[in-house]
Amino acid sequence: MVDSLLWEEALEQASDSIELLDEEIRIVWVNRAFERLHGRLRASVIGRTPAALQLGNLDDAPVFRQAEAAILRGEVWRGEARYGPPGAAFTPVELIASPLHDRRGRFRGYLAIKRDLSQREQRDRELVGLLEALPVGVAVHQHGALRYVNRTMLDIMGEASEGAALGRSMFEWLHPADHQLVRERMAVTDDSGRLPVPTDMRVRQASGAERWVRISPMGVVPFRGEPCFCVSVLDLTQERREREATASLERLRTIGGVAAGVAHEINNPLTWLLGALDELSRELPDGRGAELAKEAQLGGQRIRDVVRDLALFTSGRDSDAGRCEVGEVVRSAVALSRRTIEAVAEVQVESPGRPLWVRGSTSRLGQVVLNLVLNAAGAIDDRGRVTLRWWREGAEVVLEVEDDGVGMDEQTRARAFEPFFTTRRERGGTGLGLAMCQNIVTSVGGRMVLSSAPGEGTRARVHLACVTAPEDRLPVEARLSPCRILVVEDQLLVQKALVRRLRGVGHRVAVADDGEQALAIVASGAVFDLILCDVMMPRKDGLAVYRELCVEHPAMARRVLFMTGAAFTDEARAFLESLASPWLVKPFDDVDFARAAAAILDAVATD
After folding, report:
1. In this structure, what is the dihedral angle of CA atoms 279, 565, 509, 319, given to the nearest 10 degrees?
2. Same CATH fold, 478-606 and 321-469?
3. For residue 213, which of 276, 396, 433, 566 sits 20 to 30 Å off, Cα-Cα?
């Protein structure tokens, strides 16, 4: 048997503080580690209770009461507290308190062991310092209850301090739709020990805002003496927002390419159709035939407008990218959405009666108006009304889209511009429409304001800087003085329609069936006031003609007026948009031609 003195010496040399207490919780023996921890000699504590000696931090009194209650019930208690010499800094310790029985099982008192945790806490502080600096969120939880979160994680959760998060269930911040998924992932770890794969899900902040995150399990880690589970959390919100925006632009680009191709195939025959109808309506005497010709002409013009509206909203091409006329934008948006809206609402347009120009892109502002109009229609449960109005207000133009639909409560209205927030997800809503609208408007220095109340409908106002009309949109004489014009057009019927129209108003017209023939005519010495040239042609297109003229006949190159059914290649579109001079989209009317031609001839005359 081991000598009892040897046992006592072993306890004396232990690095942990050890104390024995009798049935009345009075100290009967302590080792040297106890003296070092508490700064008290053995003789000064024997026969006294820890409470009377006030050995611990008074702030830990609830912990001491828990420990005392547990051992009085005959239980072993384990926890953490702080102890130290009087007047000195307290030392963090792990406290183990246990009832003490002799070999016969008789209760003889209590045993208390205190292990210094200073080094562990120092390591914890260093580790926490590293974790706090990480750009990803880190959370430590025990069965779902949060034990630690770093600064980045607090930002993701939308909380200002640790106190608002620790001790609470992480499910309070996870989107309800993702709760089951998280439970399944936790069950996998509990059952097999295998770590589940990283999972994308949503976090719902206290404000109601949602963020997309990727949660990656890091496994079980010891945290303050207990096994806990650690996860890293990467905020994906901005990445998803950019990915959705890119996908939207790609879809728009694809649709734009298809729309441009369709427009090209429609616009060329439409040019000769409208030209023939225009000539026919002039030739026919008043009567039923003339009336039918006029009606057919109106139908053709409607086809032209639909094609132009479609191209406007898909290609991003603008006649003047720096400014746009609000009435034109509204007309196009209403025309495109009318069939959708008319099923649920009446559309009412209140125009100021004069053109109002604003800073911005026609196509992008058109997307804003179209989105607002469709949103308004979607908010109407039964037959209602969507009203569009705009007016000048100081240095701004205010565009308003109003509906008499279900309206929004204050919480919904406050989040309306938040990416991915939608009340219509089951109907295909993405939550990106209003966010993209706001981005478009703010990108040109404007602002958007929503006002709404449940049952009172919604009013969306777009405030944009008012600007002057571009010079090529100012009134000009629709007729030109007779000119010498070379028409370069490969489609015979389009060519004939253009020649008839131009000769009908007094111009002298020559024709070329393709680019090579046009260059040969110019090279022969023929002189023209204007070259009306198609962009897309076989053998040598309009771009090649222009580039060769710039080298061989620069004076004539300045007189080129391009026309296109639709520039459906990126090169052609980029070329046209790089030009300082105007260009025409077929079919065009006499006023459009006169304005564009006058601008080119005036530029030549002033050089």
Report:
1. 100
2. no
3. 433
Cβ proximity of 47 and 29 under 8 Å: no
Residues 369 and 485: their CA atoms lie apart, in Å, by 40
> 3-state class of 536 per DSSP?
coil
Instruction: Kindly report the backbone phi and psi dihedral angles of residue 213, in degrees, each rounded to the nearest multiple of 5, phi listed first.
Output: -135, 160
CATH 1.10.3720.10 fits 4-116, yes or no: no
Architecture of the 478-606 domain: 3-Layer(aba) Sandwich (3.40)
- Record the pTM: 0.49
CB 93 within 8 A of CB 56: no
Model pLDDT for residues 253-308, shown as the tens digit of each residue: 676 677 777 777 788 888 878 888 887 877 787 778 878 887 787 777 767 776 76
Give Cβ neighbours of residue 11 (< 8 Å, ≥ 6 apart): 18, 31
Task: Output the pLDDT for position 126.
Answer: 81
Give the Cα separation of 212 and 235 in Å (integer). 6
Topology, domain 321-469: Heat Shock Protein 90 (3.30.565)
CATH code of the domain occupying 121-235: 3.30.450.20
* Joined tokens for residue 504: 């009908």
**Roughly how many angstroms between the first and final C-alpha of the chain, as a whole number?**
118
Instruction: Answer yes or no: are the C-beta atoms of 78 and 95 closer than 8 Å.
Output: yes
Query: Nearest CA to 542 among 498, 494, 487?
Result: 487
Identify the three-state secondary structure at position 435: helix
* Beta bridge partners of residue 461, listed in sequence order: 400, 449
What three-state secondary structure class fits 554? helix
Q: Which of 371, 462, 450, 455 is nearest to 416 (CA)?
A: 450
